[in-house]
Amino acid sequence: MSEHARHRRPVSWRLILSGSWLAIVIICAVFAPYIAPHDPLAQDLLLERLPPFWVSGAEPGYYLGTDGLGRDVLSRIIYGARIALTVAFVAATAACLIGSTMGLVAGYFRGWLDQIVSRIVDIWMSFPPVLFSILLVAVIGTGLHSVIIAITAIDWIRFCRVVRAETLVQTRMDYIDSARAAGFSRLNILVREVFPNALPTIVALLSLEMGIAVIVEAILSFVNLSISTDDPTWGGMIAEGRTIIHFAWWVLVFPLIALFLTVLAFSQFGEGLRDRFDPVLR
Amino acid sequence: MSPDKATARSYLDIDDLSIVLKHQPTHRLLRSVGLHVMPGEVRGLVGESGAGKSMIGKTIFDILPRAVEIVEGSVRLGDDELLKLPQSARRKVIARTSALIPQDPLTALNPVRRIEPQITDRLTRILGVSKSDARERARALLDEVHIRDPESVLRNYPHQLSGGMRQRVLIAAAFAAEPKLIVADEPTTALDVTVQKQILKLIAEMQARHGTALLFVTHDLGVVAKICQNVSVLYGGKIVEDTEVKSLFARPTHAYTQALIAATPRYDRPDESLVPVPAAVIEATQHEIAAADDAWLGARQAGGRR
To answer: What pTM, to 2 d.p., does this model score?
Structure first.
């Protein structure tokens, strides 16, 4: 039986594909200056609106064409990955830490603590999240920090709700009573018995949240509330591409594809990880 | 409440224990319960569902649900009066002296942790046993509960074991710290009949070997007849009969117990039809309880005014 137990399932395609895409994006973000063929900010009006390489009229070296100011689209997408991933990792991790802690504590200790946390969550949920984030950034000013703060401030409730629900389920299990009867303190039980059971859910949610953070950052860039317009962001590129879509569709489409694949990869990666982490499914 | 000879020697003493719902403090879930278990004694605690059997177990381990409250009574474990101790000291006494065999082996083990720490945690982290000693002890215990290949079971996760195996693991874990008292809370209810029989035999065997006092909570009089020496019958949160098992079946004194024994199906006489507990007996028992409640409330109110 134990030999069989140690034999793990092969890694799923879901995990391989999403993981590879995320690896590519991360490598692009980290090594952008070495990978990008051009300076993402260099403008050249002689080279404006060049099509991607397989369309006639393309200039060699500009693989995905250029935008209305003659800037290389591929280079801008590669640099854009930096901002997208920074926001994804920092904002999602912060939201996860705050939300999961609140959820665990509220779900385990119940009582007035749970009352307060649950009421805050209820109030938070009554705001439409994207409008709320736009409002927040408008109030605290634009910039990378504001975007991260806005996403954290809004999305921690996502973790809080799910983790609290999971904690409530686990707390009713007999093994919690057994641990209490064996003399362990409440905090001890929360950390050693309840938390590991909530962990697969937290991991899946964290990955999903990274994808959501990428979207929210793109939305904020799209409405010009993220960072300065010159810096390449996927949302900003989509906004610029929208205005010239009839002349140069590639300025809009390629950042959109990058965005779509990245968000999809994050959510699929999370699901795949949960399947692997959960000992009951394993 | 002067301790007579019998209670002076017993290991677990519950006296006059009353538990109420917090939001309805006149409604008692346990009604002045008295329960005594001698060292090494196997005592059955019988009652139908909702009678408060598990509530007594939970009181001993200080794991009562939040919605209920102990309003009076005492729980003595060895030399320690639990309800008078501060919480941390109480938990220490409980952890050192007693253990629980829970009802449902499927939820009583943490699904994401391996078996080994779930047996040894109490030893290493509460009682200060060294890791290798605890591991050795866990292996020996799994041997004792007749688990083949204890080495690999220690490394397994709960879902890799069958229900019967898990209950064996839980029994091993209960005996790990050599407790003076074990409370088995319907340990066979969640298992099928053949496994039930083995588990019952195993609990009796372990109890005899370790000389532990055992409080066996169940709704099954047949099980009581098999393994218990003495028995307390609980109805509506009140002990209606407290006697030796032999005399329980030979000469039950309370009308409810008599009816209950008459209602037990006899496999050796399959032609007899089933006898329900007569409504009149239930009614009479409930009247008796209501009268006791009135007296209790009156006494409390008089006490409160004083």
So the answer is: 0.82
